[in-house]
Amino acid sequence: MPIVDDAGVQLAIDRGLFKAEGLTVKTRMVKGGAEAVPALKGGALDLSFGGYTTWFAAQSQRVMDLKLVADSYRMRPGVLVLAVPKNSPVKRPKDLAGRKIAVNVKHNLASLLTRTALAPHGVKVDEEKNTVEVPYPQMEAALKNGSVDAAFMPEPFISQAAKNIGARTVVDLGKGPTATAPIAGYAATADFATKHPKTVAAFQRAVNKAQKLLADEAVRKDIIPKYTEIPAPMVAKLTYGVFPTDLDPARLKPMNDMMIEQGYLKQPVDIDSMLVGP
């Protein structure tokens, strides 16, 4: 996706890190888990970037046996928010009760974090009635024309909407009950990981090197405009999460807990068994 979360794989391509590991990488844009999971299962993709809600749900429902290969992005304040138009009557989280909220994909990360964040404010989000699927690049327009009352947004769409239409944050998902939520990582089928361990290890090494480089603002300013529509001067102003350089099961546990609490999982997934060691 054209978001900062998956900058690691883009940087690894741009800097020749994959090539140095002997890998030839071809990318394919996917909308979300609904498209990524069958593509992995059917072999159209060897590895995929995606939210941990997607990977845990697929593993729990035995859609396929998945392996988590590399971490991609972790939460910080300001990284994911629920935004409303400038003149919206919504002033506080509880004002979102009964409102239409844009999410990129239902029954996924956006919906889960929205429900978890609003629950302490007495707001129950019915995904069928209260959420509307809108691709990230179209959320600003949806806020502007009033087809939704609020939108779940990552960067760069938060900053762009604030600049273009004066959109403001009502809920910062980097705070409160969702503050420790892991966001996304890279996964492969267990079958692929077992048959191609050297390929997976090479991918891990390249991506983790790229993740380490992304701590440098100058590196982010160089790579992000190349695969998104964000102009270079704006890149320095964006709010960034953490680009992890390893997979830590302790950091993934909060996602397990939230998915159980919100009914996305009937029982926790065995995170340790899903990890592919470096």
Automatic annotation (TrEMBL):
* InterPro entries associated with the record: Solute-binding_3/MltF_N
* Pfam families attached to this UniProt entry: NMT1_2
Q: Cellular component per GO?
A: periplasmic space
Write out the similarity annotation.
Answer: Belongs to the bacterial solute-binding protein SsuA/TauA family.
Q: Write out the entry's keywords from A to Z.
A: Signal
Protein name from the UniProt record: ABC transporter substrate-binding protein
Can you give the residue ranges of the Solute-binding protein family 3/N-terminal domain? Answer: 8-231
**Keyword Heme belongs to the record:** no
Question: Where is this protein localized, as stated in its record?
Answer: Periplasm
Domain of life of the source: Bacteria
